Amino acid sequence: MRKKKSVRTVTALMLSISVAAAMMADIARAAAETNADKGFRWRNGAEVYSKVCSYCHEGQVGPRLFGRELPPEYTRAVVRNGNRAMPPFRTSEIDDESLAKLAEYIQRN
Ligand code: HEC
């Protein structure tokens, strides 16, 4: 009995985490897309990080990115292609130049 209940609890927990991640991905995308429509350009890597990535990477959803000296080419690949629960971002959301700045910003911090 106990075992069954905890399996159910874990399943419910995993489900709510993935729903939360999907919702946050939508919020982040909507913010980025609205900006792109207005011919918006990100100011720098810090701005993209705080407005898009920090939703998940400063919360409980994604792993911490700072202090790990992540290679910029790795960050760029993950952002463009996504990876499991990490959503992909298109060039209309984060242009190449901003992504390059963002990846360097993450490596430095
Ligand atoms: C909707 C939540 C969400 C958003 C928004 C998000 N990420 Fe992620 N990210 C994740 C999750 C979850 C993972 C872990 C994926 C896995 O391994 O299953 C991840 C993984 C990563 C990784 C790999 C980390 C490692 O330890 O290998 C990088 C790099 C990364 N994200 C960068 C970014 C950047 C840069 C942004 C902003 C443009 C961003 N993410 C926005 C959820 C998100």
Basic shape: globular
Distance N terminus to C terminus?
Answer: 48 Å
- For the residues shown, what is the average pLDDT? 84
Order of helices and strands: HHHH
CATH homologous group name: Cytochrome c-like domain
Please give the number of β-strands: 0
What does this structure look like?
There is one protein chain. The protein has four helices and no strands. The protein is mainly alpha-helical and 109 residues long. The chain has one domain: Orthogonal Bundle (Cytochrome Bc1 Complex, Chain D, domain 2). It is globular, with a radius of gyration of 16 Å. 22% of the residues are buried. The mean pLDDT is 84. The chain binds heme C. The site of heme C has 27 residues, from helix 1, helix 2, helix 3 and helix 4.
Topology:
Blueprint: H1 2-37, H2 45-57, H3 72-81, H4 96-108
The structure holds heme C.
Residues 21, 24-25, 28, 48, 52-53, 55-57, 61-63, 65, 70, 75, 78-79, 83-87, 89, 94, 102, 106 line the site of heme C.
In short:
The protein is mostly helical and 109 residues long. It has helices at 2-37, 45-57, 72-81, 96-108. The radius of gyration is 16 Å and the shape is globular.
